Amino acid sequence: MTPPMVIGKLLESDPRRLGPYRLTGVLGRGGMGEVFLARDRRGRQVAVKRVRPSLMHAREARRRFAREVTAARTVDSPLVAKVLDAAPEADQPWLATEYVPGITLSEAVETYGPLPEEYVRSVARELTDGLAAIHRAGLVHRDFKPSNVLLSTGGPRVLDFGLARHLHASTFTTSQEFLGTPAAPEQWDAASITPAADVFSLASTLVFALRKRAPFEAEDMWRVMYAIRFEEPDLSGLPFRWRTLAAACLEKEPRLRPSLDEVAAAFDSFPSAADPVVVPDGLAALLPAPAP
Description:
Helices cover 32% and strands 17% of the residues. By secondary structure, the protein is an alpha+beta fold. It has a 6-stranded antiparallel beta sheet with strand order 1-2-3-4-6-5, with helices on one face. A 3-stranded antiparallel beta sheet has the order 7-9-10. Strands 8-11 form a two-stranded antiparallel sheet.
């Protein structure tokens, strides 16, 4: 298997510096932002995110980026990339975090295939801790999905707080914000969003990791949205323990879903819970070496 391309070359149109950081490569580009590999004044590698140039003067894009900076600074967990510096009010808003070499869960599954149950359980157990830290900070991630989980030799990390909101914040959104996201049913409405929404998305993400197929799939996003809100999830092919837990987490009604503490306890009761975590050989070959 060929490892996915993790670090791309800078384009002529890309900046060479953001704040005090010298950019050396491209880690990713999304609809709202771009993430660069960079070095600080001491030569240490960091990840620097900025708002896409086409959106730099869009008020909502800048507000969302400022919200991401605030959310990322609030959460204290080794499972979330540490914020080093930020300038959300700059002409080119940017956010610098520690750089963790790795690949996203979506890249890993697309390249390796469905991941072994024991490995997914170990990753899932850590992700519950990462989400719990986010919730303790009074936030709901709201955009938890395979492309926002980073796999590394040091374990998983939770990425991207671009849609994170405080529990008391206004929750109305549009379907465009959730394009490609395994969002909970209540996220498609102007309903109150609680940590239960992240439990739903966690289960969707783990089902994808185990089968390379999400519990709700269709030919377009509108059909997926309908399935999430009104149809039962497809959990075929999952081991019994996983099927039972996923079904509970994917309940349409948020109050019927287990809490993250209950999900963590369920993972701790799995037969493989006490076994040493072994990264499958094929997947281990995909994970980049730690940063110098």
